[in-house]
Predict the 3D structure of the following.
Amino acid sequence: MNNKTQTKVNFLTTISKFVKDNIKILILTFAAIFLIFLTYQGYSYYNINKINKLSISFFENIKINDELTKYEEMNKISNQKGFYSILSKLEIIKNNIKNGEFDDSLKLYNEILNSSGLDNNYVSLVAINGAYNFINIVIKNKNVKYIDSINNFISLIDDNLDNYIGNKNELLYLMSILSLNSDSSYKNNKELLTFYDNMMNNEKISSTIKERVKKIHEFYFFI
């Protein structure tokens, strides 16, 4: 391992204790809201189209307690086309991440994002979910392998969708921190500090996101 890589790994070790807890809460909250939203969309569609076999299969299998049986069935649904294939892949991703199968999760995220005809709103939601999850993976496992993939996720978040401006800015802020060579680099990075100030003054960014970012800013600025 060269010195540059070793330095970055050591730095990730330093920041992980503080950032990991904040990211974990964020990811769990966002993932829950995200999956509830998509499941609700699917359930609404299911009520309108009860004869759709895939919808019936998805909502029957998502209730299964046996994990092996549940994800075997989800795999079958994921190989089909349509909305329920995407929902099934997201369930599989969640299970893969829990089991440390990160490459498999990344592959499924890319399959969803490359789906033809997927609305920009859903592309942005999936990309945000993937970016938060893989930032957590990078920090938790002290592995910079997925940095390029995270940047790709962020690039897919539509700038024209006001609902996701806060998430995109927060993700860009976190990635900027991960690119630093040391803790002290933060307070001397004028570009990053300007970016932080712009976030705090952006009325389109929610107070919840601003508060999270502020805590991280204060941690680095006053150490």
About this structure: The mean pLDDT is 79.
